[in-house]
Structure formats: structure tokens, C-alpha cells
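Suppose a classmate hands you a notebook page containing two proteins, each written out with its sequence and a corresponding row of C-alpha cells. How would you begin to make sense of it? This section walks through that situation. The first entry is reproduced here exactly as it would appear on such a page.
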Amino acid sequence: MEALNTYSKAAISALVNHRLGEIKLGEQVQAFSSWEELKYSTATFVLLGIPEDIGVRANEGIAGAATAWEPALKAVLNLQSTDFLNGRELMILGYFSIKDPEYTAIPDLQNTVSAIDELVYPVIQKIIEAGKIPIVIGGGHNNAYPILKGGSKAFQKAMDVLNIDAHADLRPARGRHSGNGFSYALKHGFLEHYAIFGLHENYNNGVILAEIEGNPKINAVFFDELLKSAGTYQEALQPLLDGLSNETGLEIDLDCIENVLSSAFTPSGFQLNDIRRIILQSKKKFAYMHVCEGATLMADGRTSTATAKTIAYLISDFLKAQSALK
């Protein structure tokens, strides 16, 4: 765990834009002190960053996902603390410092992703064993695998997942990258029921579609079908949720949302408010939340100041909705 950097209260405060007459979330959140004390903390949720895009590059995507963590953290910390959301229910743990490998050929990148898996899963396991709910800001979607591994080890059984995503990330489990996190989780017994909401017909290959069709424990709703339906997204989602009987993780790949900067940027997808409604209206208790693939700066020069605020909205909605289910 030598790559895990934790935040002191002073470090958190330095990220807050203090203003007279206002109280920000960053002035109320809890800071991590030790794993032993985490068990006795009054915080319910623990925020963790995995700022890397090695998994995306290992999947031949465009780098940029490493840039979302710090701007998103600042956006969360500078939300207003009110009766709607106080902030004391959240602990800021820290983030992983992940260096690029010396050699950046695809096999080298894939080996590094496997090493990242080994860094991440024990931390997730410790958070969940302490009775807390991890909220993870990525980073590539490769990190779904170590999150599921850590959660599965903590619960001592396989988990279920709802993945809101344009892509199934079910590429063959040969060489770790951002496109096969769920393949590895299924292969190694950390994932039992896999529900995917919002898949794009144009961007999932025939092998993946056959895997979805042939595996009774994988269920999917395609975005293209949602466009043709007169029903609401919540109505279309409910049958997927009904099939998730184990402790369940919520995965949100930001490339499913229109015009959010990511390697697989899309002009056609969910609106941000669609995802917010799903989170706020859900009565499902989730064991973790993972928001991934967003970027503020891409390797090809594209930039966005909206990504951080998008992530802050999703996290604040999750905090409110899940706290109401206690």
C-alpha cells in the first residue's frame, strides 16, 4: 500500500475555497487517521481516487482519465454544507500515486494494470470490512476488477454489479486493460450477476454480444432500445435491479453521458440529469460507487472544466440517496 497517499485535515482545508458566511463540505468531512480508527468513525462513506489512464492506454484508448481526480475532489469539497448534505458522513481517504512503466508497449501497460489491481483491492477490502461504503473516482474502468475483488473478499462471496455504460467491458480476459475488468471479475468468481444499462449497439462487438446473450447471469438494456421506448429510464432499469440479489456495486462510466470528456467521448447518450434521476430515485442499497473514465485534459489536447462538476453532482446525489435508505 506504499502508493496510497492520505489527506490530513490541513491538506483538505487547503483545497477549500473558504468564504465568510458559508460552510463548505470540505470543512465538515472527516480525514483518515488509521485503519483501526476507521471502524469507529461516524462517516458512512469513504472517498478514494485512482488517477491513472494506463488501463485505457492498454486498451488502445486515448490518455486523459488520470486528470479527473484532483479537480473532482476540489469540486466535491467546495459544495455547500447544508441540511441537504452536511459532509460529516464522508471521509476523504486519499489517492494512489501510480507511475507510468518505463516501457509503454501494450504488454508493459497490461502488466502495470495487473500491478495496480494488487494495490487497489486490499484498500477496498479494508474499507468494506470497516463497514464503510467506498466511493471511487477513476481512472480507467479497469479498476472495476480490483474493486470487485476487494469487495468480494470483504463480503466473502461474489458481488453483483449495475454498470451504467455504453460498453460492456467484456473483452477476453487475456492481458489486463480497461475493456475487460468485468471479464476478469466473472472469470475469478468475484462477480455473479452483471447488469448493464445503456449499452450502445454500435460499440459492442459480436463476441461481446454473444457473451451477453449466452450467459444467463449477464443482463443488458441497450440505449438504442431506450430511445425507441415510451417508458421512463427508471421503468426500464427496475428489472435489472430486481435480478441483483448479492451486495451490489454501482459503476458509472462517464462515456455513457453526452459530451462528457473521455477517451470514448459520445455525442449521443444519457443526459447528466438522467443519471442523476436514476441515482436519486433508486431504492437499491449499493455497496460501493465507482465513477470512471472522465477527464479534464486529454492527451490529444481536448479540455473540459465541466467534468469535475459532473462527478461532484453524481457523488453528492449518491451520498444523499444512500443516506436516506438507512
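The notebook's second entry, a different protein, reads as follows.
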Amino acid sequence: MKLQLFRNATLKLDYAGRTILIDPYLAPKHSLPSFTGRSPNPMVELPVGIDEILEGVELVVVSHLHQDHFDAVAKERVPKHLPLFCQPGDKGKIREAGFTDVTPLTDRAEWNGITLTRRDGSHGLGPVVELMGPVIGFSLEAEGEPSVYWAGDTVLYPPVEKTIRDTKPDIVVTHSCGARWNGDLIVMDADQTVAVCESFGGTVVATHMEALDHATVTRDDLRRAAEARGVPASKLLIPADGETLELRRP
């Protein structure tokens, strides 16, 4: 499989001969409000044009409706006829944006030889979860491809640990910027990401970094934390915006 990170959580996967776009956040640099007063968002431009991002896309996955995962530009530019999986409860709002083939991922779905399985996530812990709202992660499986667990906008908490332990994925994709809301951690930080690396035998791909002004962890921060705990660079991949990784089954 190939995984290309564009910015934040926006990924393009070439998987089992199909092309999947995840959480499109396509707004121009500094076109959206700040979360903390530090900078308008997004803090960086897309590394390639929107047409290139959308080229060949056959399926879209939207994990939740926060603007940094499905923004107004994405609602305008992503072709409305493409099949789109979302979390339960978001179908109506996505259809209101004009999308015609929207399926809530309630448990497990089959699409062109690919199995998608919904996974639990928690966008923080404690009272902040009510402010953030529900989120999902998902697993991908297909014959001849590495198994993937895309954890999504979640902190490391028991259901995530259980998913890794029970499914033993080849690849875990984390959101690792340590974003905070009113002081509360709402996605994984460096310590939690390194803990994921230490918890299973596969590869971690850390994303969702250096694009938003409520983030607290940079790529360099994460790499230093991993090195301090003895995690090899081959175990923890931290792609730059625009970078493509080729990932194979062990």
C-alpha cells in the first residue's frame, strides 16, 4: 500500500488497488480562525494542489465533522457522487452538503474487496469529550495488504489499547500533535504515541502535526521523545506534508 500525507489528518491511501481519501481539510493557509490566539488556521499550505489530491479518489472517509477534518472547501471540491463513509449521526449533515452516497460505518462494511471496521475513539477524557463530540477510528483489511488501524482523533485510552492488542495491526496511524482544548489533551501527545510504539510489533505512522495552533507537539519533539525511549526510526514513521510512504505486510 501507499500512504500519502497531505496535511493534518488528510491522507490518500492506495490500498488493494483502490484509492481512498481520509478527512479532507483543503482550506488555504490562514483562512480559518485561530483556536488559541497563536495563529490563524491552517498554519501551513497544502503541499500540492487540490486537483492532485482528488485525482483518482474512489472512496472518501470522514471520521467526524470538525472543520480540520471536513471543511467548507472539501464540501465544495470533493465530487458529490463518490461513496463516503462517516460516523453514525453525521449522515444528514453530509447529505445536506450535497453528497449522495453516504453510509454510516456502524460496525463493519465491505467495499470492493476491502473490509472497514469501526473502532471506538475518545476526543479527550472527562468533560472535554462532551465539547468535542463523538469520533471514530477504523481498521482496513484486504487480501495481500497490511492491516491498518487508523486511530483518528483520540487519546490513548483502554478501547484503543484493546483494539491494538486484539487485532494486532501491521500499521497504526496516530494523530500525535498533542492538541489541547482549554488545557485538556484531546489527541495523542508524544508520550502516548511512544507508548503505542512500545505496545505492539507493527509500525506507527504519526500524523496530524504542525498544522493547527492548538497543537503542542512538533515532529522534532516526537522524534526526540521516541529516541529517548529507544524506539527506532523504522518503528515510528513521521511523514512530512506531501510525503508518500510505501508500506508492506511483514
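A careful reader of the second entry would note: The CA atoms of residues 4 and 64 lie 20 Å apart.
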